[in-house]
Amino acid sequence: MKHDVSVVIRIEGEPTSTSRKLDEVLRLLHQSRAREIHMAGELERLEGTIQPLTDAVEGASALLSELSRLIRENAQSPQRILAVADQIDARKAALAQAIVDNTPAAP
């Protein structure tokens, strides 16, 4: 939603305390609006990064789960194959933990 606000105030004569205060309020209002516009752009940029990250994490997790399952199902040398599957499972857990550790807390 876009809003445009324009305010023009003309005060004749010498600047008064009231007009200086009004000028300051208008300056602060302008700064606030500029920050709002900037933050909206940043929020849109951040929102655009969420889905690709989610897709990557889900894809990596699914791949590791599938590899682990296939190795376990096709094990001819159980000890070595199961050790590899355990390593894959551990890396999957490490990936999940890294995501948790690097995700900022909700405000």
Description:
The structure is a single chain. The chain is mainly alpha-helical and 107 residues long. It has one domain (17-101). It has helices at 17-73, 78-101. Helix 1 packs antiparallel against helix 2 (78-101). It is rod-shaped and about 95 Å long.
From the structure above, extract its key features.
107 residues, mainly alpha, 2 helices, single chain
SSE map:
Elements: H1 17-73, H2 78-101
Concise summary:
Helix content is 76%, strand content 0%. It has 107 residues and is mostly helical. The relative contact order is 0.06.
How many domain regions?
Answer: 1
Structure summary, number of beta strands: 0
How far apart lie the N and C ends? 24 Å
Largest sheet: none
- In one word, what is the shape? rod-shaped
Number of helices: 2
Query: How much helicity do the residues have?
Result: over 70%
Structural class: mainly alpha
Low-confidence parts: none
Q: What sequence of helices (H) and strands (E) makes up the elements?
A: HH
| Mean pLDDT across residues | 80
Radius of gyration: 29 Å
